[in-house]
Amino acid sequence: ARGAGGWRHRALPVLLGVTLAALMQAALQRLGWPVLTWPFVAATWVIVAVEGSRNDR
Questions:
Q1: How far apart are alpha carbons 57 and 44 in whole angstroms?
Q2: Taking the CB of residue 45, how many other CB atoms lie within 10 A of it?
Q3: Domain annotation covers residue 1
Q4: Spatial contact of 41 and 25, defined as CB atoms under 8 Å apart
Q5: How large is the C-alpha radius of gyration of the chain?
Q6: Which range of residues forms the domain containing residue 26?
Q7: Is 42 inside any structural domain?
Q8: How many domains does the chain have?
Q9: What's the pLDDT tens digit per position in 39-48?
């Protein structure tokens, strides 16, 4: 049961990060920004995922 709970705790920040990244990319494309902003979005998502897993401990 603890494994399933841990997976759910990790899936939430990941899902949130993916959703935020998609929304941010759509907004940046509307503004005419280059897709070079993707590394920044990915870094933000990684930070969110790491923080989520750290809170799981």
A1: 21
A2: 19
A3: no
A4: yes
A5: 14
A6: 6-56
A7: yes
A8: 1
A9: 777 788 788 8
